[in-house]
Amino acid sequence: MNDITVFGVSALTFMMAMYALEGRHPGFTLAFAFGCLLSSVYGFLIGAWPFGVVEIIWCGVALRKFQLRHAQAMAVRVD
After folding, report:
1. Angle between helices 26-45 and 3-21 (to 10 degrees)
2. What is the DSSP letter of 79?
3. Cβ proximity of 42 and 10 under 8 Å
4. Residue 46 and residue 33: Cα distance in Å, rounded?
5. Which of 2, 8, 72, 73 has minimal Cβ neighbours within 10 Å of its Cβ?
6. Which residues touch 19 (CB under 8 Å, ≥6 apart)?
7. Count of CB atoms within 10 A of residue 77's CB?
8. Cβ(69)–Cβ(26) under 8 Å?
């Protein structure tokens, strides 16, 4: 197993673990976005650019979800 494969397996494992934990705290959604970014890097490194592009899009979706969840959490604290 080469270094790129180890990086890819680690990135995808991290991403999926953060996805599973998203409901517990908005910080896990931010971590999921980071995992998507790492997975995108992996996709580009192995030459699978469609995978890399889709993961960048998922990173953007997760960042937007984090913004919404974080704002909602702040609104609950104020009330």
Report:
1. 160
2. -
3. no
4. 20
5. 2
6. 32, 35
7. 7
8. yes
Identify whether the C-beta of residue 59 lies closer than 8 Å to the C-beta of residue 40: yes
Rounded mean pLDDT for each run of 10 residues along the chain, 79 residues in total: 94 97 92 97 96 97 93 76
pLDDT at residue 75, as a whole number: 82
Residue type, 65: K
Tokens of 49: 């650019």
Structure tokens at 3: 């270094």
- Using CB atoms within 10 A of its CB, is residue 42 exposed (0-12), middle (13-18) or buried (19+)? buried
pLDDT number for residue 76: 75
Q: What is the pLDDT of residue 78?
A: 65
> What is each CA distance from 17 to 3, 11, 23, 68, in whole angstroms?
21, 10, 12, 21
